[in-house]
Amino acid sequence: METELGRPARSYVLQSPASQKRGLPHWLGQVALYLVLLLLSASFVFPFVWMVSTSLKTDPQVYTVPPTLIPNPIRWMNYPEALTYVPFGKYFLNTMKYGVLSSLGVLLSSSICAYGFSRISWRGRDALFFIVLVTMMLPFQVRMIPLYIIFNKLGWLGTYMPLIIPSFTGSAYYIFMLRQFFKTIPMDLSDAARIDGAGDLGIFIRIMLPLARPALAVVGLFEFMSCWNDYTGPLVYIGSKTDKYPIAMGLQQMRTHLSQAVQPLMWPKLMAASTIVIIPIVFLYFFTQRTFVEGIALTGVKG
Amino acid sequence: MAKRLSVDRHAVRQTAKGLLFVSPWIIGFLAFVVYPMGASFYYSLTHYDVLRPPRFVGLANYVEMLTTDETFGIVIYNTLWFVVIGVPASFLTAFLLAVLLNQKMRFRPFFRTIFFLPSITPAVASVMVWLWIYNTQFGLINGVLIGLGMRAIPWLSSQALAKPSLAIIQCWTQGTAIVIFLAGLQDVPRSLYEAALVDGANKLQQFWNVTVPMVTPVMLFVLLTGLISTFQSFLLPWLLTEGGPNNATELYSVYVYRSAFQHFKMGYASALSWLLLLIIVTFTFVIFRTSARWVYYGGE
Most Cβ neighbours (<10 Å): which of B78, B84, B246, B287? Predict the structure, then answer.
């Protein structure tokens, strides 16, 4: 919107008087901004670009110096060969089982606990919630050894039980997230339902859960992705039972095998396998981008 | 406040209901937190190799840690290196990128995605890629250097360079911190910037006098969580260099894992983990106490 003076009226108010006097063109700042952005984002994304580039190379190409970006010829066979080098099909199923069951457990238990911490008023509630928060700070190492020993005695080592069962007892992180969310729902809704004769369980199932669908989606998504990426948990509890490996351990197993004696196409195959392990996560992220970022901001800053 | 019997009964019923809803967490808390912590404290006072029952030795593990264990001294140095150099580097990376992303621009979601993606990819895969990038003979960086006629840089095989190489990867995966900073930056009321403008502040002065003070609460959060996760950092050093070369990247949590599952010194590892807990609590306490001096909670 140009004024008589020839300058857009709105920006006159918001631009610093000093820069107006010096006459620094606004577009120069914008160019600089996008230049810096492009440079930085290029360097951040380049490792992934390099990963894919290597995954399509043949053996002599991989070892050329200086390295080339676009392989020629392209060896698509690296992918099927990588997928069969270790039993990735079985590992994929293991990981899916782990992720889906864990997400289910976390959704059920964390939402019920979050309801108790936010929609019911009771003595000691906030003090107990403070303890929930404190457990988030506890390092895993301080519980790791006794847990390993208990699960050993229970015969659960080499299975996913040590990883899935605890998710049915709530996770402090998700209880926190859902509690914050439940708190934003007006008490009037619960009160109205109570007047109509509903008990807390009814209110929880029929009012809270449907309203919390976006937050529940975030919880389920976060947990599934966290299980997909999980390496430390399976490392400690699955140990060396290779047929139960999740994808993450399968990838590492491939690296160990391939680097014992320098095998042909070692790096292209490893990069192909890495690409395959990363793709579902990237896909899930793009599919749900907004809920994702909101979910992090929800726990990180507010409350 | 006069309490009649019926009010007490109501309060009791409410507490029972609350505890019922929260019972899954309580069960988990007792079974997977309280018991293990108690047990690990007990184990820390024993020599325990899993094959034979634990043998009580009092404070011997703690004494060994602090006096005769040479590796432990290296471990503490390594971990402190990351606390003093790695954490500020990651913090600054995340903050500056968030400030950049907070500028008026188009395609912000696109750029934000690019900076965020490395933080959600599986560590195993990311490490694989960086192993290849850092490769001394044919890796991306050295390939270019050799091609230009320069000498290769031994990123992961040199004791001096292993830690910085790891720190670079850490800065690359600061996506979550970037997003949290960005949320905090976008929360700063525009009226404050306009008021500063009226007072004649330029962009830099606005940044230093409005932006920075208003995001100090978020900074505290990111600083604390970054510190805690550095002390617990296991996967990156373990997968990248397995604590090497020559213990250069043997971080605290790597040493705990190794003591437990490679040396089978469960008692010693438990003592290490309790010391870790003490260190984390102390750092958190100190930072919290001194935070009032630099954190500004405006308007709350």
Answer: B78
Interface of A with B in 29-68 (CB under 8 A): 33-34, 36-37, 40-41, 44-45, 47-48, 50-51, 54, 62-67
Residue B37 is assigned to a structural domain of this protein: no
- Report residue A284 as tokens: 């899930």
Residue B131 within a domain = yes
The predicted structure's pLDDT at residue A16: 52
At residue A98's C-alpha, the angle toward residues A49 and A86, to 5°, is 55
User: How many domains, in total, are found in chain B?
Assistant: 1
pLDDT tens-digit readout, B39-80? 999 999 999 988 889 999 999 999 999 999 999 999 999 999
Does the distance separating the beta carbons of A141 and B257 come in below 8 Å? yes
Which distant-in-sequence residues (6+ apart) come within 8 Å of A278 by Cβ? A48, A51, B121, B122, B125
Which of B107, B132, B264 to mutate to probe the A interface, most A CBs <10 Å?
B132
Phi-psi region of B204 (alpha: psi -120 to 50; beta: other; left: phi over 0): alpha
Task: Reduce the DSSP state of residue B215 to 3 states and report it.
Answer: helix
Domain containing residue B270: CATH number: 1.10.3720.10
Residue B47 host element (H or E): strand B46-47
Strand-pair partners of A2: A8
A60 prior amide bond cis, ω within 30:
no
Residues 6+ positions from B47 with CB-CB distance below 8 Å: B54, B55, B57, B60, B61, B265, B267, B268
H/E stretch holding B55 reads strand B55-56
Domains of chain A: 22-80 (no CATH), 86-260 (1.10.3720.10)
Q: For residue B92, what pLDDT is reported?
A: 96
Q: Which of B1, B129, B276, B284 to mutate to test the interface with A (most CBs of A within 10 A)?
A: B129
Q: CB A231 to CB B239 under 8 A?
A: yes
Q: Which amino acid is at A267?
A: W
CB atoms B121 and A282 under 8 Å: yes
Environment class of B162 (CB within 10 Å of its CB; exposed 0-12, middle 13-18, buried 19+): buried
Q: How far, CA to CA in Å, does B40 sit from each of A27, A154, A283, B287?
A: 62, 18, 40, 27
Q: Are A237 and A162 in contact (CB under 8 A)?
A: yes
DSSP, residue by residue, A65-125:
SS--SS-SS--TTHHHHHHHHTTHHHHHHHHHHHHHHHHHHHHHHHHHHHHHHHTS--TTH
Say what the pLDDT of residue B50 is: 82
In a domain, B296, yes or no: no
Q: Does the complex come out with an ipTM higher than 0.90?
A: no
Q: Domain residues for B168?
A: 61-291
**Arithmetic mean of pLDDT over chain A:** 86
Give the separation between CA B25 and CA A172, rounded to whole angstroms: 8
Residues B119, B173 contacting (CB under 8 angstroms): yes
- Residue B2 forms part of a structural domain: no
> pTM of this prediction?
0.86
